[in-house]
Amino acid sequence: MKGILVFDTSYGNTKIIAETISETLRESGIAVDTFYVKDVKKLSAKDYDFLVLGSPTKFGTMSLTTKTFLGKVTSKEWMNKPFAGFDTENPENIESKQGSAAAEIAEKLREKQMNQLSPVLKGVVLGWKGPLQEGEIERTKEYARGLAIKLKQE
After folding, report:
1. Residue 82's domain is classified under what CATH number?
2. How far is CA 7 from CA 52, 70, 76, 88, 96, in A?
């Protein structure tokens, strides 16, 4: 089993979450290629068994670069493949249930008839630029370990 994890980042917080997910999946015996969204030149579903996609939440939505990347994920190729989505958000945004990049990512991938394996992960960032809230790395590792279990069951 091999997957691809693609992320966008503004201040490095979403990158930290992405790298933590990738490392934890690898520790669980699952191969994963990790790319900054602008470095993905070609995306082929035949090369991957699953997709993990993450973006910072900006003004209640995912980044424009992430939206552009989603255009490369074609329903025909990726249909029925598993996915997970994540983002980084500040606590106020999460508490007020304002727009979420991760929720939007999940919605768009479900529309492409992909299978959502886990609820989205919302990494909590303090302030506009971070840092990540204390405990977010461990919480991300727990999320990724659960994701690994579900991927192995696929």
Report:
1. 3.40.50.360
2. 8, 11, 22, 11, 24
